[in-house]
Structures are given as C-alpha cells and as structure tokens.
Amino acid sequence: MHGTASDKSVIETPRILPWVVAGVFYLDNFDAAAIVSILPVVARDFGAGVGAASMAVTAYLVALAIFTPVSGWMADRFGGRRVLASALAVFGLGAAGVALASGLTGLVLARAVQGVGGAMMVPVGRVVMMRSFPRSEFVRAMAIVTTPAILGGVLAPSLGGAAATWGSWRWLFWAELPVALAAAVLVLRHVPAGAPIAPRPLSPAAFVLFGVALAGLTILFGMVSAGAASGLLFWGLMAVVLPTGALALWYNRRAAVPLFDFALLRRRSFAAAIGPGTLFFMTAGAVPFLLPMLFQIGLGRNAFESGMFTLVWALVALVMKATTPTVLRRFGFRTVLCTNAAILAAASLGAAMIGPAMPIVVLMGVLVAYGVARSLQFSVVASFTYAEIEPNDVGAATGFAGMVRQLSNSLGVALAAVVLVLIAGGGEPSATDINLTFGILAALPAVAALMFLRLPRDIGAAMSGHLPRGRAAPT
C-alpha cells in the first residue's frame, strides 16, 4: 500500500476507489462554490446584510483552519477509512442544520459543523489515495479524483442560482445530506481498511495555540478582503493573533513532537510545494476575486455575463485534468511547474490589458491560457507534495500542506484587495485600477517560476514516470 507495485494491499485496491474519493472532492467543491452564489438570497431571507450572512462562509473557513492541521494525525490514529466516513457524516449533518436554520446564528453554527467535516474530507482523501496507490500510479489516480471536483465548482453557481430563483436555497443543503451519507457508505465499503499508523503524540497546547492563531488569521484575511481592515475589532484581533502565533511557533520549535514538522521541508519536493507552491495558491485565490470585477466594471457586463466568461477557464480546467499524467510523463515535474507558473504570469499580464477594445478572440485566449495553467498546476503541486514523502510521514505532510494551502488562498484574496484599495486610493476601483492590480500580482507566479527552475530536472521521477536523459525512472 505504501509505494511499491508488489505490495499486496496495492494490488487489492478496488478500481472504484478513485471515483469514491472523487465524490468526496466533488461534494467539498460544490458546497464551497454554492454558498457564495446564494449569499444575497440567504441574507434577504434572514433580514440581514450580505456582510452579516457572509459569516456563514467565515465560520466554515475558521473550522477548516482549526481542524485541517490535525487531519493527517486523525488519519494515522484512527485509519483513513474511518475518519473519512465520519467526516462525511458530520458534513451531512451540518448540511441538514443549515437547511433547518431559522436564523443567522443557527446558520453560522451549522456551517461551522460542516467545516469540521470538510476539514477532514479532502486532506484525508489524499492520504487514502497516497496509501492505496504506488507512486507510479498516484498522478493518474489523482487525475480521476480531481476532475469531478472541478465539475462541482462549475455546476454549483448555476444550480444554486436555479434553486434560489425557482425554489429555495435550502434545497441545496437538503440535497447534500443524502449525497454525504451515501458517500460515507461507499467509503466504508470500498476504501481499504489498512492498519492505522502509530501517530506522533498530539499536543493539546499546540493544537489550541495554532487553532487560535490560524482561526484569527483567517478572520483577519476575510476582514481585509471585505474592506473592514480597521476599527477596534480588527486591531484587537490582531493583538491576539500575532503573539499567539509567535507563541505557537516557539512552542512548536521546542516540542519533542511538533504539530508541524518543519523537518519535512528538507525534502526538496515538499519544500517547493510549500514555498513557490504558496505563491501559486495565492494567485489561484486572487484571480477569481478580481476577474468578475474586471468583467463587470471594465467590460460593463452584468453578473450573468461575467459568470459565463469565468466559466470558460473552469471548463478548460475540467478538460485539462485528464491530460495531467501524460504531460508529467513527457516533461517531468520541474519543466511543468516552471512552464505553468510562467503561463500564469503571462495570463495575469494579459488580464492587465483587458478592456472594451480587446478583441474577443484575444480575451478568450487569455482565459484559456489561465485555465490550462491553473488546472495543471493544481494537480501537479498536489501530487508533487508527496513525491519524496515516506509512507509514515504522509499524515504529517498532509496536515502541514493543507494548512498552508488554506491560508494561501485567503492571503491571495486579501493581498489583491489591499493592492486594489491602495491603487484606487480608498475609493471605488476603476477598470484601470483592476488592470494594474493584475499586473502587480503577475509577480507572484513569475517569482514561483524562477524558484521552481532551481529544482533538479529528474525530481519526482518515480511519481511522474518522466525519463530524463534516457535514464529509467527510479522506484
């Protein structure tokens, strides 16, 4: 099960396993995209503003920030199958709570419960896949898993809008309940039990310290993105988060068994997935935040037309997922990572020139280029994270990487918001302001490309199947 094709448990891995885990990823992405699309309707139903209703999103993200770091430990301690099935059950019950919520408080609490389940779903799904397939088959298996995830993000806004327009937004969450429970049953039936790995001891103090710091950072990033980076609440939270975060890092560094094992950064692939990979995830968070504004302000499109433009790169991403194993086998991790990052930088510069005078063919070219590079980079970085990780360290690596990705996306949105506010001088942003923001943020993937360029040409060959300079890929 841990990386050799001769391992008996690998041979016995059910063929349906990637599709079962794909259902988990689909549900997670669908929910994340759906809640954002229906926020105005939810706010109106509860007689609240959209800002107040957005606490439902924040509650979910806070739960992710707190529990994602221990997801790998949970999988080691209790076994991936048990944790994944339990996470789906919790997620489904949280969805039922959202559907039944009679007020904003109940909605926020139910979303927090969903977040606890969601924090375990995708990370533990990755652990299950890594421990069920040899490295040589991992990329192909994960391509199957991540394709439906993109489909969930593509379908959610339209289905959410339809439910809210012609029925009730609650239908979405009632629909999630049976899907989550059915997925839990499939997990129990088809995910190999495996033997739980003796995990490193979990320090309650480290869990609490990092939980407070990461939850606070998530809220702060959200406040910055919403233009609320001022006032007593913001600075009071900052006064709590900074010393708590510093204390958590100090404690982690001196602990005999740290919650985040920084020794994992000695593996070059993992260090690259965390370092320049973070710049990519920041870009991935910032672009969906800026593009709708650019289409509506810069091109004068309405929300529906803007959505149709962004759908272009989402559909391209869906198609590209299937090509990931072939591309990696042909070119290897280093070349693909560098090239994708360079294309993302070029696409961001292209977005900096979007305006009414841009021909539609050129606009579509920018969107397609972004969709291709973004899709491949997501898949490649997710696989590259584990390229040099030993089986017993998969859980620790998953918690570490999951925490970084979660914060990177939020930080990317916050950074885009700050840059936009500074360029706009605190007023309403113009199309030119958004263009300039895209141009500045192009530096993120450009720097990432230079950092990826320092990697060895044959890094991760056992996983990619790439044969540099005629040599056989290592096993």
Question: Secondary-structure blueprint of this entry?
Answer:
Elements: H1 8-11, H2 17-37, H3 39-45, H4 50-53, H5 55-67, H6 71-78, H7 80-100, H8 104-132, H9 135-166, H10 170-190, H11 204-225, H12 231-254, H13 268-274, H14 276-298, H15 303-320, H16 324-351, H17 360-384, H18 394-424, H19 431-441, H20 443-452, H21 461-464
Helix pairs in contact: 2-8, 2-9, 2-10, 5-8, 5-11, 6-7, 6-8, 6-18, 7-8, 7-10, 8-18, 9-15, 11-12, 11-18, 14-15, 14-16, 14-17, 14-18, 14-19, 14-20, 15-17, 16-17, 16-19, 16-20, 18-19
Question: Can you describe what's shown?
Answer:
There is one protein chain. With 475 residues, the protein is mainly alpha-helical. It contains 21 helices and no strands. The relative contact order is 0.13. Helix 8 (104-132) crosses helix 18 (394-424), helix 14 packs antiparallel against helix 15 (303-320) and helix 14 (276-298) runs antiparallel to helix 19. The protein has three domains: 1-193, Growth Hormone, Chain: A, CATH 1.20.1250.20; 201-259; 261-475, Growth Hormone, Chain: A, CATH 1.20.1250.
- Poorly predicted runs: 1-11
Q: What is the tally of helical segments? A: 21
- State the name of the first-level CATH class of the largest domain: Mainly Alpha
- The helix-strand sequence is HHHHHHHHHHHHHHHHHHHHH
Keywords:
475 residues, mainly alpha, Growth Hormone, Chain: A, 3 domains, 21 helices, 0% strand, globular, disordered N terminus
